[in-house]
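General statements about sequence and structure are easier to judge against a single worked case. When preparing material for the folding task, we compiled for one chain both its residues and its backbone structure tokens. The amino acid sequence and the backbone structure tokens for this protein are reproduced below:
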Amino acid sequence: MTTRKTEVPAFRYPGSKNKLARVILKYVPKRGRKFVDACAGRGNITFRAIADGLDYERWIVNDIARAPFFRAVRDRGDKFKTTQKSKAEFDRLAEMVKRGDPHALLMEPFIAFNGGTYDGGGSTTEGGRRSPASYEANVRLACELLRKKEVQITDFDWLTCLEAEHLGQDDFVMLDVPYIGCDVGAYSAESICPTELIEHLKAAKFNWVLTEYRQPLYIKAFGEPVYQKEVQLQTTNFAVTGGKERRLECLWTNIEKSVVKRDSVTVPCEPVPDDRADAYYVDLPEQELLREIRECATVITAARNQMNKEMRRRLLPALLELKRRTFRKHPSYYETLANMGLNPDTVRQWFYRSHTADEVIGQIEEEQEAPKETVHGGERPLDAKALLLQRADKIAKAILENKIKYAKRLATEYMQAREECWG
């Protein structure tokens, strides 16, 4: 049997940048001090960069979830042999991976759905339609590249990774972070705080490339992307959508931009003025309304970033030190924190999305085109009565969810709409 020659190792993975790697590397300096793949996934961008001959003194592959996979490739990849795909073998490997078994880790991209994790179920196209021999060659070549470049493998949070490397102008960072509003299974979109990422990248003295779908948040921060291409959303259910659900894959970078333009702005968090209530805004001129909205959004963003800093740089280190000191002491570590009112539920509440936040989202989200009803000879928009009934349904839903204030506002909008329809 003839095995297809593998020149660049590539692994299937949810959100993988294998197909985009060549494009990304066109924007990357060809040589430098450190090449940091901060959210590496299965490492397809790093493998492509090494294979294409980019010249960096040090290579760092970081991924908070997939670091064990890279270590398995480096340490056992040269001796790897695929095992037969079957339901029994999948279940066996799924148990073995919980113990960090290297073979189970190496088989995961080959046997798991979409190259993801065992939690996502088995693959219907094993290894991206690779034969067992081809996948073995793929793993062995990846092992060779990791060893050849003595690639450093870490499992930090993205910011911890960047801060640990003390990066400068001769360094490059690749950031393929979890996309906003996307759930690909491997990571949650909540794994990062986008505004914290923006604040860090604006102040960065190192070179970076960021990938995301076209998002107003990033456009406002970094301007128009340097590259964008329409792609098919891989999680689309084609039977339901008929092949819709496409996105614009984008790249942003600070390369060839002056350091002056990278400076970030610190926004003071001031208390809400005492006179701010619904009545305050009734007679406010439109320009003042816009200024109020802009200032409020800026302060909320700054407050969230500050909260992340408090947890990362103060709370977490202090908790780790307290746990070390109170080991097997009385009162225990957990008792001490409970007496302070600090427990997991308290932390969850810090990130709780309030009813007010739901109201804000409801006001910001663009209203969908009015639904249509099927009639003889085609379709027509629903009449005013039907649309008002839909609004009434929203009011009922808000009441059932105990969002009373929100329900009152919906009711006000409902009455205004009735007056517009019938006077």
Observations:
- The CA atoms of residues 90 and 367 lie 45 Å apart.
- DSSP finds 16 helices and nine strands in the chain.
- The radius of gyration is 26 Å.
